[in-house]
Design brief:
- The structure is a single chain.
- This protein is an alpha+beta fold.
- It has 5 helices and 11 strands; from the N terminus they run αβββββββββββαααα.
- A 6-stranded antiparallel sheet has the order 2-1-11-10-7-8. It has a 5-stranded mixed sheet with strand order 4-3-5-6-9, with no helix packed on it.
- The N and C termini lie far apart (79 Å).
């Protein structure tokens, strides 16, 4: 016998007014600002019935934006309708949820591809760019002093002298 979807999946709030709250999913689950929604989001831009999560074939979840003005996002992309998997992040207004399936490893969380994408280090890029620019300026001053005439015209000589003194 196949387990019911409501016993498998839940939404875990990760930011906004729903942080640290869990919502077990049933056959139909509506998110919006209306009091009759399973998750009520009281903030500007959230429609009365903003989005709905339904089960398809008893074991697949489908998220539909219900015509909201501000949109519904899954894993950072605006969606009208999409299938959901464990680990997907749903974003409406300032609220975010992680779709969890107990006992299942999320497909999109901490995979090698995701870790590789997020490992870009802007601080190191800035540091190496600064080192390269400083080395280039020093090389001009030491090995090509005739280039300093060009820099004098640009009024950079005083700045460069202050840097190397």
């Amino acid at each position: 016998m196949e387990p019911e979807i409501m016993s498998l999946f839940k939404l875990k709030g990760t930011s906004g007014s729903v942080i640290n709250q869990s919502y077990p999913l049933g056959e139909s689950f509506v998110l919006g600002s209306s009091a009759d929604c399973q998750v009520q989001i009281e903030e500007p831009g959230v429609a009365a019935h903003h989005a709905e999560i339904t089960t398809v074939d008893g074991n697949t979840l489908l998220l539909k934006d219900l015509g909201s003005q501000s949109g519904t996002f899954v894993n950072g992309e605006s969606v009208v309708e999409t299938r959901l998997s464990s680990g997907d992040e749903i974003h409406i207004g300032s609220c975010r949820w992680m779709l969890q399936a107990p006992g299942l490893r999320p497909e999109r969380v901490l995979t090698a591809e995701v870790v590789k994408k997020s490992s870009f280090d802007w601080v190191r890029l800035f540091a190496w760019t600064t080192v390269a620019a400083t080395a280039g300026a020093t090389a001009v001053i030491v090995w090509k002093p005739e280039w300093l005439d060009t820099l004098r015209v640009l009024e950079w000589l005083d700045i460069l002298r202050a840097l190397i003194e």
